[in-house]
């Protein structure tokens, strides 16, 4: 059984700034990753807009047959360690630019 509990009332990490990844619809942006996070960050709150994107966390390149799909219009909470290893790529069926806006939170 998983005993790790995330505080549902997170607050912004002191000193951290939000990050934005932009994915061109033609795939020219390639594979992107977020810059390093503050050491006190526990959770990353992400909003995906424009177009969906693919994500992997095992070091492989995201592809249509190898990905977790993050859908545009949705918000996601992920552990900061997971996001630091994640690779992101545009959904190859996208017809518009995709964006992931991420904020660092702590307990």
Structure, described:
This protein has 107 residues and is mostly beta strands. The protein has one domain: Jelly Rolls (Sandwich), CATH 2.60.120. The chain has one helix at residues 80-85; strands at residues 11-12, 19-23, 43-49, 53-56, 68-70, 75-79, 87-90, 98-106. The protein is globular, with a radius of gyration of 14 Å. It starts with 10 loop residues before the first strand and ends with a strand. 23% of the residues are buried.
Termini Cα gap: 22 Å
Low-confidence stretches: none
How many strand elements?
Answer: 8
Q: Can you tell me the CATH topology?
A: Jelly Rolls
Percentage of β-strand residues? 35-45%
Helices and strands, in order, run as EEEEEEHEE
- Under the CATH scheme, which architecture would be assigned? Sandwich
CATH class: Mainly Beta
Number of domains: 1
Mean pLDDT: 91
Helix content: under 10%
Biggest pleated-sheet summary: 5 strands, antiparallel
- Cα Rg: 14 Å
Q: So how many helices?
A: 1
Structural class: mainly beta
C-alpha geometry: globular
Would you kindly provide a brief summary of this structure?
With 107 residues, the protein is mainly beta.
Structural key phrases:
single chain, 107 residues, mainly beta, Jelly Rolls, five-stranded antiparallel β-sheet, three-stranded antiparallel β-sheet, 8 strands, 6% helix
Produce the secondary structure layout.
Elements: E1 11-12, E2 19-23, E3 43-49, E4 53-56, E5 68-70, E6 75-79, H1 80-85, E7 87-90, E8 98-106
Antiparallel strand pairs: 1-8, 2-8, 3-6, 3-8, 4-5, 4-7
